Amino acid sequence: MAHREDWQFLLAGEGPRRWLALGDRPALGLRQRAIRHRLQVRLTAADFQQQAHHALQQWQTWRDAGLAVAGYLGYDLGAALEGVAPHAHASQWPDADLCAFAPGDLEPTALPAVTPQPALPLPESLLRQGAWFQRAVDQALDAIRAGEVYQVNLSVAAALPFATQRPLPELLAALLAVQPVPYGLVWQAEQGTLLSGSMEQFLRVQGARVQSRPIKGTAPRRADPTADVEAATQLAQTVKERAENTMIVDMVRNDLQRASHWQSVQVAALCEPTPYATLWHLESEVHGVLRDADDRAGLLVATLPPASVTGCPKIQATRVIGRLEQRWRGPYCGALGLDLPGGALDLAVGIRQVWLQPGEAVLQVGAGIVAQSEPEREWQELCVKAQGALRLLATLRGGQ
């Protein structure tokens, strides 16, 4: 578990799509003493849908009062908005953790220099789930062939022994050193510390314009520049990867249309290979014009949980996910970020996460399954995605 300190959260990112609040500053954070209001939600079976809506209404109330809002809305809360009941909790992490504060209380902070280390070996707790995951992929393919869904996102969670006493600035610096991404967040809670290094933009709102950049499609980077370009080209031309991305784009269009002016929703980019430190991803971009730029609750109801981490169609996909995974996802695959007064909202999809809990670290990774998926290849892709989290943990361990 991370060192207990006065910071509530720190965020930073790299590249043109980094957190709106950053400007040219290296990182921004909020002290716990600056929090005006705090809301943590743990869904219960009795009134889960009402609880989920209450969290969004509280967000709206704070924003209407001129306060900034930061935190996360977990995947299970998003599914609850669609009427999908949560599973029994396997963790004490809240389904939503939000705080409200005055925008001027955000503080710039310098991040220390960190030397990245090679990744730890794949933990046994992950490797022993390989057979289960491949069986789950087969079951997902059965659901696709039966016409239940066209696509479903499956994930696994793995815990490994780990302890650190690093302060939050060092945690964030290590996160960005090993995985330079637009959306790096370190969030402190009583249960532990959440580290999220996401490259996926869920929602960005500036004025009345709303934008989302879903990601589907993955290939590892190559050391040789020519081979690296070939890997990107092959990824962009792969029928399976393009189909997966295109289905998600259609879902994002539908979600944004629920909150946008008629015919304002457009696809600005489709299946573009985008490089990151260790991976190529296929990214698309969808944007629209909101009917009510001040209605945060309405926008979140229309779009949660993020389309790229559920499947198609969304509601049935969440049911299939629950049936196959049989566990609570928590912050993973939810939405996290910052909402500032004046119409500036920036939320990332909660992927590439590590939870530092007492004596252990928990990581979750997932893969999208479509009709062309092969269980073994999906498992290999999942293991590639886990490398970022394992490299982060090795870097944190190596510097102590």
CATH topology: Anthranilate synthase
**Gyration radius, to the nearest Å?**
20 Å
The residue ranges in which pLDDT falls below 50 over 5 or more consecutive positions are none
Termini gap: 14 Å
Strand and helix layout:
Elements: E1 7-12, E2 28-31, E3 37-41, H1 48-64, E4 68-73, H2 75-81, E5 96-101, E6 107-108, H3 124-127, H4 130-145, E7 151-161, H5 168-178, E8 183-189, E9 192-198, E10 201-206, E11 209-213, E12 215-220, H6 225-237, H7 239-257, E13 266-275, E14 279-289, H8 296-303, E15 311-312, H9 314-325, E16 335-340, E17 344-349, E18 353-357, E19 360-369, H10 375-398
Antiparallel strand pairs: 1-2, 1-8, 2-6, 3-5, 4-5, 4-16, 7-15, 7-19, 8-9, 9-18, 10-11, 10-17, 11-14, 12-14, 13-14, 16-17, 18-19
